[in-house]
Design a protein that fits this description.
With 342 residues, this protein is of the alpha+beta class. It contains nine helices and ten strands. The strands form two sheets. Strands 1, 2, 3, 4, 5 and 6 form a six-stranded mixed sheet that branches. Strand 5 and strand 6 form a beta hairpin. The longest helix has 19 residues. It starts with a strand and ends in an 11-residue tail after the last strand.
């Protein structure tokens, strides 16, 4: 038995444009900007190779027919440690995909333990983080670690499942991520990350969720999102992408939410108003602001000036927001990967 482990943080998209008309998944994706989180998905993978050689008595075994595919066992738990069997299928798909492209031997059996640290379908990039963490862990346990290929595989599976467009590409950049060109990382996609420390508070409506495909597959939403995304993105593409662009990102995210019409949906409008009311009530509106997470019914409370931010402010906001019926959790930004990790 060999073991591989990986942890990949989630990703919050603050603005984006849709580019999914290409036939090949590796050329599909999005341009945009967002935040890579230090909370996401943790995966432990165990490889159990097929038994070969002598039997228990030391005799040479008789010839056997071709061995069928090994078993796949997956256990997924949510952020509270509760089993979530509905999430098992995507990880089984990953194993079978890696077998199909001959990255894994068909006869090897697998056991995956997956722990989700954030909710799904709330705009936190959890499917991308899960696919990427699982691919990294499985390839490590297989004795063939390949971070670049793991990222390409995760992007391919995201597109096959009509999930996120650019989350995997952003995760390869890390930190405050700018996606300049759409597509799979290491193929045609281009992104860069700026490293900075900033406490964040993720807030979401637990009774609501959104799947990305409901928007990117809808002609009207696709058009309005892409037009708004390209308009908001243009100022960010000019010049170097550094931590000093934080204020530009806040402004662009607000422009996108307004022009796309996403902030006008009743559930999102209610969420934004509730968070803003709590910020004002605690005298924090001058130091903190909130932006929608695309495409959940969720928002991220962000400091206007990261260098002056204190996580104590965010901790004071959790109680009032949870009393109002929302859920919230604190996290931070993940750093861009080192050259060895890319």
């Amino acid at each position: 038995m060999t073991v591989g482990e990986a942890h990949v943080g989630g990703h919050v998209t603050l603005l984006f444009s849709i580019h999914d008309d290409e036939l090949l998944p590796r050329r599909q994706g999005s341009r945009g900007a967002g935040l890579c989180l230090d909370a996401g998905v943790r995966v432990r993978a165990e490889a159990l190779p097929a038994a070969i050689g002598e039997d228990s008595a030391g005799a040479i075994p008789a010839p056997r027919p071709a061995r069928s595919n090994g078993s796949i066992e997956v256990e997924v738990s949510d952020r509270f440690g509760r089993p979530w069997p509905e999430g098992e299928a995507m990880y089984i798909t990953l194993i079978n995909d890696l077998r199909a492209v001959r990255r894994l031997a068909p006869s090897t059996s697998w056991r995956l333990e997956v722990r989700l640290e954030l909710p799904i379908s709330q705009g936190f990039g959890m499917s991308a983080a899960g696919f990427l963490a699982a691919a990294l862990a499985v390839l490590e346990a297989n004795g063939t670690p390949d971070p670049r290929y793991a990222a390409r595989a995760a992007h391919r599976l995201e597109r096959q499942h009509r999930g996120g467009l650019g989350d995997v590409l952003a995760l390869q950049a890390g930190g405050m991520a700018l996606r300049r060109e759409p597509g799979a990382p290491g193929v045609v996609g281009q992104a860069e990350g700026a490293s900075l420390a900033a406490p964040l508070l993720l807030v979401w409506q637990p009774d609501e969720s959104r799947h990305t495909s409901a928007y990117i597959d809808h002609p009207g939403w696709k058009r309005s999102i892409t037009e708004a995304g390209e308009a908001a993105l243009q100022p960010l593409l000019a010049g170097a992408w550094t931590p000093k662009r934080w204020g530009d990102l806040l402004e662009a995210a607000a422009v996108f939410a307004n022009r796309s019409g996403l902030e006008e949906e009743h559930e999102r409008a209610t969420l934004l108003q509730s968070v803003q009311t709590v910020l004002v009530g605690h005298g924090l509106a001058s130091a903190w602001t909130c932006r929608l997470c695309m495409l959940g019914v969720s928002a991220v409370v962000m400091p206007r000036r990261p260098e002056d931010a204190s996580s104590l402010d965010l901790d004071a906001l959790r109680g009032p927001l949870e009393s109002a019926g929302f859920q919230a959790t604190m996290c931070g930004l993940s750093p861009p990967p080192s050259d060895e990790e890319e």
